[in-house]
Amino acid sequence: MEGEPRDSIPMNEPPTDRPVRVYADGIYDLFHFGHARSLEQAKKSFPNTYLLVGCCNDEVTHKYKGKTVMTDLERYESLRHCRWVDEVIPDAPWVITQEFLDKHQIDFVAHDCLPYADASGVGNDVYEFVKAAGKFKETKRTDGISTSDLIMRIVKDYNKYVMRNLDRGYSRKELGVSYVKEKRLRVNRGLKNLHEKVKKQQEKVEEKIQTVAKHRNIWVENADRLVAGFLEMFEEGCHRMGTAIRDQIQEQMKTKNIRGLIYDKEEDEDDYEDDEYYYDDGTDDDYYDDEGEE
Questions:
Q1: pLDDT tens digits for the chain (294 residues)?
Q2: How far, in Å, CA of 228 to CA of 181, rounded?
Q3: Is 104 in contact with 21 (CB distance < 8 Å)?
Q4: What distances in angstroms separate CA 122 from CA 3, 27, 31, 119, 126, one per listed residue?
Q5: How far apart are CA 130 and CA 134, in angstroms?
Q6: Residue closest to 94 by CA, chosen among 58, 40, 70, 122
Q7: Nearest-5° angle of CA 274, CA 279, CA 283?
Q8: Residues 55, 50: Cα–Cα separation, whole Å
Q9: Which of 13, 148, 157, 203 is spaced 20 to 30 A from 136 at the CA atom?
């Protein structure tokens, strides 16, 4: 019956003068959001729904399905704290009967359409009677989450969870672990932590190497431009310095030339005065000579 279309399962008309009493059952071990979503669908099956949830006890569950992680009392209590549940029915039967439906005045039974084996051992569907009576309301399973999946995760990482609980104060005897097993787990964890530290250190070293290489590449790429810029600045500085020195020399030479001209002019004036004085002396002598002759 797996994969059977929903329309092929007949369903009675719901009552309209009172809340529709919908029943959902299961084991609900390690209660998770997949369980909550299925109960939400059951609760929202009709506009006015009263949801009853049945849960099998440990004896029945261990007999037909296997060992559970949580006890039946823990599973009952988990259901009572689900917002979609109006009433919890403990010690629910593995196979639903007409007597059970009448006792709790159940209008519909909500469950996914996959067949579940009954207690006969011949593979009969436990919901076959309900489906035939038109009281079955299909819900959808949530992919990716189930109690079996959660247990598989724990089994897969068993050693990690053992060490987790040892670190939290549980004794090896409480965890069912031998002395040798405990020491081996601790040594292995120490080696793993050391390996992780070495790996992180290697990553840091590689990161630094990459940073240096990146800066080197930037320098190589810009070396020509930087050298050309430096040479241009150096040449410009030398040119400015040379111009300043030249201007200073020219200024000094100009100053010396002016001083030389002034000095020469003063010497010429001195010579002129000397010549003139000599000329005047000669004239006076001639004058006196002339007077003697007269």
A1: 334 444 568 899 999 999 999 999 999 999 999 999 999 999 999 999 999 999 999 999 999 899 999 999 999 999 999 999 999 999 999 999 999 999 999 999 999 988 776 666 555 788 888 999 999 999 999 999 999 999 999 999 999 999 999 999 999 999 898 989 889 988 988 888 888 889 888 888 988 888 887 777 777 777 777 777 777 787 787 878 888 888 888 888 878 777 666 666 666 665 555 555 444 555 455 544 554 444
A2: 70
A3: yes
A4: 20, 21, 29, 8, 11
A5: 6
A6: 58
A7: 150
A8: 17
A9: 148
Q: From CA 264, how far away is CA 258, in angstroms rounded?
A: 10
User: Under a CB-based contact definition with an 8 Å cutoff, are residues 107 and 135 in contact?
Assistant: yes
Report which DSSP code applies to 8: G
**38 touches 124 (CB < 8 A):** no
| Strand extents, DSSP E, the chain | 20-26, 49-55, 87-89, 108-111, 136-138
Angle subtended by helix axes 147-156 and 158-167, to nearest 10: 80
Tell me which residue of 19, 75, 72 sits closest to 50, measured CA to CA. Answer: 19
Each as own residue / partner, the long-range contacts of residues 1-7 (CB below 8 Å, 24 or more positions apart, any chain) are 1/113, 1/114, 1/115, 1/125, 2/113, 2/114, 2/115, 4/113, 6/113, 6/138
- Does the pTM of the predicted model rise above 0.85? no
Question: What whole-number distance in Å separates Cα of residue 255 and Cα of residue 249?
Answer: 10
Q: How is residue 115 written in tokens?
A: 């067949």
C-alpha 277/C-alpha 70 separation (Å) is 146
Do residues 109 and 12 make contact, with C-beta atoms less than 8 angstroms apart? no
